Amino acid sequence: MEAAMNWLRQLFKSAYVSTLEADVERLRQENRAMLNSLLGTAGIGPVDFPKEAPKPVNAPRRMSMFQRQRMTERESEQRILERSKNVRREEQKSAS
Q: Which domain holds residue 33?
């Protein structure tokens, strides 16, 4: 039963997504036509647009506020540890 529900969800989701993609393409065509019309009114020739929409770029995932704070804390702790190690080395060198 659950498998059938998942299949139906996927079916409707894909139909919804394809409908949205068709709307996006239609709106892009309308925007191109409107831009060329306005440019033509201004005395500028029509602009050629690429036939395909640009491919989306997989941007790196953004960190949450908590993750940034935790990363900053770790870096701070690491610097403190490094400084204390350096101080101990200097003390050992001066004691020798």
A: 1-48
